[in-house]
Amino acid sequence: MQKHLLGLEGVPREEIELILKTAFSFKEILSRPIPKVPTLRGKTIVNLFFEPSTRTRISFELAEKRLSADTVNFSASGSSVQKGETLRDTIRNIEAMKMDMVVIRHSAAGAPHFLTRCIDAAVINAGDGRHEHPTQALLDMMTLQERVGKLEGLKVAIVGDILHSRVARSNIYGLQTMGAEVAICGPKTLIPVEADQWGVEIFYNIDDAIRWADALNVLRIQLERQRTGLFPSLREYAAHFGVTRARLEAAQKDLIIMHPGPINRGIEIENDLADSEFSVILNQVTNGVAVRMAVLYLKSGVTETLE
Length: 307
Ligand code: CP
Hints:
By secondary structure, this protein is of the alpha/beta class. It has two domains: about 15-130 and about 285-300, Rossmann fold; about 135-285, 3-Layer(aba) Sandwich (Rossmann fold), CATH 3.40.50.1370. It contains ten helices and nine strands. The strands form two sheets. Strands 7-6-5-8-9 form a five-stranded parallel sheet, sandwiched between helices. Helix 1 crosses helix 5 (about 135-150), helix 2 packs across helix 10 and helix 5 packs across helix 10. Phosphoric acid mono(formamide)ester binds near residues 54, 55, 56, 127 and 260.
């Protein structure tokens, strides 16, 4: 077991299997009348968020509380980062207050890797720029495994803004390691030039991707990261690549529909479809807490077994 979780690239299948198995055990614990264990009592974890987040931030904090860890939350806004303090100084000051683990989200790819060179605490990547979002991919895989039973041989198409997506990269690494087949689909301008090296099918037509896939992971159009001109308009994107009930019905398939959130309803996915019988979007959010408990427990160095 590696000390940090910086990404899923290169993480061996046995480690992913152990995280998923542990997450299913924690999910059972979370269904008990008292959904809490003393596993990380005495450990202190800081959640460093330099970018906005709803799901990841809340679910890490909840996971830490369910494990009985002490938690500290840091947001760049309102901190001395706004006075010009560097990431290295920020984290070394925080570590001087005796933190055991650090969860970090940052707009710069590689920020979590940089932290591992500044501090001794275990570092968990909660999303770094366009690079990776490993716990999102783990909760996506847990949700698929829960629904289908296995990942081996499953066909998963990741649809939309692949260019800007850390979720796509982590899912591709994780799913391929677990023996799933992966495709990406989107307009040419949102598919990175290096994608032909990734060992994935590439579709430029959403109906072809729907016919191929067992599950669609529909990505958010990242309005805040778009450079101008990557596609003509949101309306045109929705018309050509939006996932709709009519498209699923035309393919006559019971697809699993996933989305990491936040959703641009009516753009990458039809409003009603996001809440339909095809959707496991809220199951993903539920599983996020169990996955993050598993990661924190396994990276904490605590050897006490779960009950
Ligand atoms: N999926 C995800 O990372 O959502 P947040 O940005 O709300 O954390």
